[in-house]
Amino acid sequence: MNDDDRGKMNYMKEYSKYSSLIFQMIVMVAAGVLGGIQLDRLLKMKGPVFTIGLTIFSSFLAIYYLFKTLLKK
């Protein structure tokens, strides 16, 4: 295996690492949004209280997970 092949493999490892990280963040935020919508419907809220709350919470959770993963050695 020459240096060019090793560089391509390293690039693919990094690409797959960050792609999966982004996908996980999207799933976290989507779960918060959908969970909030379901709670608002279930509890018959007048406004989107749980939707907004869980969206904000899941966004912060996703950002925390991002930094925790990126800063890990």
List the defining traits of the structure above.
86% helix, mainly alpha, 73 residues
Quick summary of this structure?
The chain has helices at about 5-40, 50-70. The chain has about 70 residues and is mostly helical. It is elongated and about 65 Å long.
Your description of this structure?
The protein has 73 residues and is mostly helical. The protein contains two helices and no strands. It has helices at 3-42, 49-71. Helix 1 (3-42) packs antiparallel against helix 2.
Spell out the blueprint of helices and strands.
Elements: H1 3-42, H2 49-71
Contiguous runs where pLDDT drops below 50 for at least 5 residues: none
Whole-Å distance between the termini?
Answer: 27 Å
Shape: elongated
Q: Please, what is the average pLDDT?
A: 89
For the CA atoms, what is the radius of gyration?
18 Å
* Structure annotation, total helices: 2
Strand content: under 5%
Structural class: mainly alpha
DSSP, total strands: 0
Main beta sheet: none
Helix content: over 70%
